[in-house]
Amino acid sequence: MSLEIEKIILRVAEVMIDELKLEDVTPERFEPDVDLVDEVGIDSMDLATVALVLQDEYSIRIDEDDYPKLTTVRRIAEYVEKQLNK
After folding, report:
1. C-alpha angle with apex 60: 41 to 29, nearest 5 degrees?
2. For residues 17 and 53, is the Cβ–Cβ distance under 8 A?
3. Can you tell me the distance from the alpha carbon of 8 to that of 6, in angstroms, rounded to the nearest whole number?
4. Residue 44: pLDDT band with limits 50, 70, 90
């Protein structure tokens, strides 16, 4: 795993924790492969909130049609990395 993707995973976890007010978890301990819908309980509005923050922070566009693919922190980070390298 590249250093860049590790940084993005950590930042996505931070945004997720902050925006969704998740308690008892730190970005370093947030499992990047946990299913966000089934195991964390986020819904489409939560994901939209996180996507808006990431779009602003990284100056990228996250297409709403791609939201169903963004089911884990790792997948979100990989999507962000791909958008950054376009």
Report:
1. 40
2. no
3. 5
4. very high
CA distance 38 to 84: 28
CA distance 86 to 4: 15
| Three-state SS at 10 | helix
Q: Write a three-state SS string for 56-73.
A: HHHCCCCCHHHHHHCCCH
* Rounded to 5°, angle at Cα 4 from 58 and 57: 15
Average pLDDT over all residues of the chain: 93
pTM for this predicted structure: 0.92
Residues 81 and 31: their CA atoms lie apart, in Å, by 18
Longest Cα–Cα distance of the chain, Å, equals 36
Q: How far apart are CA 30 and CA 79, in angstroms?
A: 18
CB 48 within 8 Å of CB 62: no
